[in-house]
Amino acid sequence: MTAKKVTIEDVARQAGVGIATVSRAINNAEGISAKTRMRILQTIEELGFVPNTSAQSLKVRLTNQIALAVPDIRNAIIPDISWAVEQAAKAHGYRVVQINTAGNARAELEVVRDIKKLHVDGLIIMPLAYPKALPELIDKAGVPISVINYGKQLDDSLQADVVCLSILEGKLVMDHLQQIGRSRIAYAGTQKDVIEDRYLAYERALNRVDASLVYFGEDFSLQTGIRAADYFHGLAHMPDAVYAVNDMVAIGLVNRFKELGVRVPEDVAVVGVDNNQWTTISSPQISSVSIMGSEVARLAAELLLKRIREQTRGDYEKVQFEPRLIVRESSVSLKRSPMHGS
Amino acid sequence: MTAKKVTIEDVARQAGVGIATVSRAINNAEGISAKTRMRILQTIEELGFVPNTSAQSLKVRLTNQIALAVPDIRNAIIPDISWAVEQAAKAHGYRVVQINTAGNARAELEVVRDIKKLHVDGLIIMPLAYPKALPELIDKAGVPISVINYGKQLDDSLQADVVCLSILEGKLVMDHLQQIGRSRIAYAGTQKDVIEDRYLAYERALNRVDASLVYFGEDFSLQTGIRAADYFHGLAHMPDAVYAVNDMVAIGLVNRFKELGVRVPEDVAVVGVDNNQWTTISSPQISSVSIMGSEVARLAAELLLKRIREQTRGDYEKVQFEPRLIVRESSVSLKRSPMHGS
DNA sequence: TTTCGTTATGTAAAGCTTTAAATATAAGAC
DNA sequence: GTCTTATATTTAAAGCTTTACATAACGAAA
């Protein structure tokens, strides 16, 4: 009933050939006649033989698998990333196994340190915590690594190909909000150092940051957006725009504002980042910055697969994509006549 | 700079001991003095030795990893499942690698057939397509398997532990809709056989199915909901309630209805299934059935880990949880005074 | 000092495959 | 029928670890 552990030797004996011949049959190698191959495949079928992968990759160093380590699978942009990587890998005959680091420093280190245990030929990692020791571990990981960089200025010496999920999204948002005449612009995000660049762009765009207009929540979730809305609503002098660290937070904000009777975009404009599918479902629809998740992920995968194929090291690529702002209902200009007036 | 492939033998030579001793040091085995262990660990550090997992698991059959195969990672319930499995696994010192089958029959077969290549001790699979050959492959997979069953009546003879993502959710929805006085109840889903049970419950609850009130889309996405809303809106005689195969579709429906000027729940009640996080964000908030994804996933993981630990086969568990209907704004009774009247 | 019982360490086999090198077989030329 | 050459097949080594078994070291008891 079960594969009781039938080895290549059993197959060879049964089929009356040598083990090398069986191996050739398995691997579609040449130097074997069509009819013996047939016979062997038949025997394999009968005996229910399945080659032991551990033994195989003990000799052949490749596994035809790559790993993808993502921060928090509950963040709505991850699916796009993972999907794109999967497609690219499949096109090269590769399988993808996904690991969840939960944006946790320890987990990020662990996946790189233990990458060999995963039985993969390479790793695409999208770090969030960026623990100090990461570059060093990447350096001695032993397999090629691609980094999908999410809002952090990285040291150029990193021994990995790096593709950035756009580095300029913050500037785009701030420029836009100022252009449509908003002057009290708030920021809603997680701790300032988690997606550092997005917050730094906020600081840079302003002469002086009003600390009361900055809200740091615990994560990237709807909840954070909801709490931020409560917080801003409680202020003596409300902001007239909010730059949200991502769409999840933006959606939480907008929905809570609605409940509180704050009109979006008339009273407050809201802009998110990531341009996930929910931005168009929310009402009002939410302006956002497309960070080209799919393209970035695909490129990261291609670069990795290329390194695996060519077994090269050094001379690492550092790529970044041009982000695109997509203006929707949640951030209309103040000068236009508002559509949603009561 | 790189791990050039330093083996246990190099370490042994360098430390002036036998390879068995090094092995003992690595695995915290007993029968080694504290000081030699220290010395060896030091040498390992110096040389940057990392044990070859292929060679290891060629001897020891276990890898301390399990695989989780999920249908479409873009479906909003998957994250909960995956999260719960991860937690359970971690508690037992196991790592989880996730595979995306995209609900594709071929991929579902492949992951079971090739499970050995994944270098894992067991598999949790959540099939959608349920291809015919699946039970047979599960039977001879060679590692224990847990099935998370999503809306399909399964053959009891399946050689795997099965935990059902509630089997009665459809009945709950239909009972509820009829109870609040809806008589023209529509169904919006994917093809009837994909999440078979949910549709069958619809049929069972009605004397006669009006074919014009059934909409089958392509997937479980928002898009399907949007198209369904367009379809129903175009009917000469609109339904007064829609039972959506899941929350994604329900949310798509509600939002499109709003755009079309159809009032929810006054004109049409909408109920989804899965109870994902977006149901409470949508406005109106959406009634849904909690299918206990986390609990189900955790149990599936526990059962799998138990089998791995005890190396048992046969006598498989078939468990199902009690679903819970959660009534929100989208399906208020017709008799109550509507809150949202214009 | 000898002997015994423990504990620490080393040796060698086993685990299963791939592959280089050696050998056998078949086909073709003369 | 013999020789050459190309093709098919087999043998044996290598890949790296764990572990059963054998051996060595050590301290304690006699």
Question: What is this entry, summarized?
Answer:
2 copies of one chain form a homodimer. The first copy, chain A, is an alpha/beta fold and 342 residues long. In chain A, 38% of the residues lie in helices and 14% in strands.
What does this protein structure show overall?
The structure is a homodimer. Chain A has helices spanning about 10-15, 20-25, 35-45, 55-60, 80-90, 105-115, 135-140, 170-180, 195-205, 220-235, 245-260, 295-310; strands at about 65-70, 95-100, 120-125, 145-150, 160-165, 185-190, 215, 240-245, 270, 290, 320, 325. By secondary structure, the first copy, chain A, is α/β, with parallel strands linked by helices. In chain A, strand 6 (about 185-190), helix 9 (about 195-205) and strand 7 (about 215) form a beta-alpha-beta unit. The N and C termini of chain A lie far apart (about 70 Å). Mean pLDDT of chain A is about 90; it is low at about 335-340. Chain A binds a DNA duplex (30 and 30 nucleotides) through helix 2 and helix 4.
List strands and helices in order, with pairings.
The structure is a homodimer of 342-residue chains.
Chain A: H1 8-15, H2 19-26, H3 34-47, H4 53-59, E1 65-70, H5 78-91, E2 95-100, H6 105-113, E3 122-125, H7 134-139, E4 145-149, E5 161-164, H8 169-179, E6 185-189, H9 196-205, E7 214-216, H10 222-233, E8 241-244, H11 247-260, E9 269-271, E10 288-290, H12 293-310, E11 318-320, E12 324-326
Parallel strand pairs in A: 1-2, 1-3, 3-4, 4-5, 5-11, 6-7, 6-8, 8-9
Antiparallel strand pairs in A: 10-12
Helix pairs in contact in A: 1-2, 1-3, 2-3, 5-12, 8-9, 10-11
Chain A binds a DNA duplex (30 and 30 nucleotides) through helix 2 and helix 4.
